[in-house]
């Protein structure tokens, strides 16, 4: 089964084709995602909430991430379709120094990840460069960064005013120049999503970042309507009107590729 690589995503971007990513934490769901045409799976530290039942991502450990990355890697390999690219989150506290980051990134790659994701802005550029020089591929997560959401005033849209928007775009340029192979942009106005994509050499994946990014990601439990309580504006229930998880994954991949998702009601215009 063909492996979807960073080069595959680069080619899709060059052709102006959009691609889908979903979070996965176990083998069963991850296997179905590849079969449904989801290009990439994210082993997110959102597992702190949706798997472990905590209120934030703060308590997620490297051991948790290694364990779930292994589960997902075995799952995608057993699936029938193209094998999705696996991105795995570096948990809070695992990348304060470049050396720590490299050691921990290598553990996640050893567990089966293809790319590691770190949250932060321009301050992270030295770490991104350190990992990249050592052949460890990085996705940089910016905009709303859940590991440090309290510092940002909670789960709120980022980059609302011109100065904040410019800082996010400048951060994205610094991380791209430092060698990040993917950018992930969370919870920003559509115009910021489009501006980041405009300046980026590498594919930009959005969650609540408008229709202008190269890829779109949702949390598995959100799109399957498992999550209780108030939902973010960008969440869409793909189980509505469908009778299987596989059909929900296929619909998400198709709607991302066609541009039907995100619709204006999922965006911060
Ligand atoms: O952990 C996660 O699920 C994430 C997504 C929200 C992008 O980082
Ligand atoms: Na995360």
Please give the structural blueprint:
Blueprint: H1 6-14, E1 19-23, H2 27-35, E2 40-43, H3 47-50, H4 62-78, E3 85-89, H5 98-110, E4 115-119, H6 125-133, E5 138-143, H7 162-177, E6 182-186, H8 190-199, E7 204-207, E8 215-218, H9 220-223, H10 245-258
Parallel strand pairs: 1-2, 1-8, 2-3, 3-4, 4-5, 5-6, 6-7, 7-8
The protein binds 3-methyl-2-oxobutanoic acid and sodium ion.
Give the count of structural domains. 1
Distance between the termini: 39 Å
Predict the CATH topology. TIM Barrel
Give the proportion of residues in helices: 25-40%
Largest sheet: 8 strands, parallel, barrel
Sequence of strands across the biggest β-sheet: 1-2-3-4-5-6-7-8
Structural class: alpha/beta
By DSSP (H or I, 4+ residues per run), the number of helices equals 10
Low-confidence stretches: none
The top-level CATH class is Alpha Beta
> What's the order of the H and E elements?
HEHEHHEHEHEHEHEEHH
What is the β-strand count? 8
Query: What form results from the Cα inertia axes?
Result: globular
Function: Catalyzes the reversible reaction in which hydroxymethyl group from 5,10-methylenetetrahydrofolate is transferred onto alpha-ketoisovalerate to form ketopantoate.
Organism: Stappia taiwanensis
EC number: 2.1.2.11
Subcellular location: Cytoplasm
